[in-house]
Amino acid sequence: MTSPALLEPFDRHRRLLFTVAYQMLGSVADAEDVVQDTWLRWSSADRDDVDDERAYLVRIASRLALDRLQSARSRRETYVGPWLPEPLVTEPAAEPDPADAAELGEQVSLALLVVLETLSPAERAVFVLREVFGLPAAEVARVLGRSEAAVRQLAHRAREHVEARQPRFDADRGTAQEVTERFFAAAAGGDVDALVAALSPGVVLTSDGGGKVTAAQRPIVGADKVARFIAGVAAKGLALPNLRWTLADVNGGPGLAAWLGTDPYLAMSLVVADGKIEQVLVMVNPDKLAGLGPAPSAEPGQPLS
Fold this sequence. Notes:
This protein is α+β, with helices and mostly antiparallel strands. The chain has helices at residues 4-12, 14-25, 28-43, 53-76, 98-104, 110-116, 121-132, 137-144, 148-165, 173-189, 192-198, 223-238; strands at residues 89-90, 199-208, 220-221, 243-250, 253-260, 263-273, 276-283.
């Protein structure tokens, strides 16, 4: 039987460990594996070596995630079509509980996770731990086995890289929600002109099918091309008798989640800036939709409330 003295602190920080691993890896399955491996290390740890349980657990999870990140990058070189991180359907943003904020760090959008893919593994680890979770440079240095000066240099380089590439977005959540609702209403109605009106002229759509299902093999650029692609995807999906869909927060931003019967079918994340959609990220690879969770109850063919 597992000792409560081991289980209680681990359970208290489980969400933090998952979120750190997920933001370093962009994979729900890999993050869950990291949490499991962290538990195995934790359960066999010498308690005399642990002076700060939270820091110790984060250190284990971060090192395990960094090891996985090195091998994941080589696997992604042979990935079929564009690679996107696995989406997470999250609760609509609200005033966070201070304890939750400390455990979850800043929300990291799907678009930002795409940018993090362009960092080196060490830069990504430093960015997540320093910029997202606010860990001291000394603690990050312990995780990476580097000096504090090296960590600060990595953090500076990663921050500049991300700031240069991070998509702009509307800080006004109400505006983003209104644009999102118009966009999906136009998609459901097959109204290409209304879709074009909701899109920025230079909008970019990226879809990830992983070679498992049909998806665009290259990013689609331009309002007219993206609108027609979305209208086609919507027409195909709405023709399915067991489709259930809902507007949703995807990684803390506006989007849509859909299920075919009880199976995850699609997740779409939008980046809205200046009242227009600048970026559309579409995940249809069934292996990467576990973060949608089970479908809420609704009649087949009807949107979820």
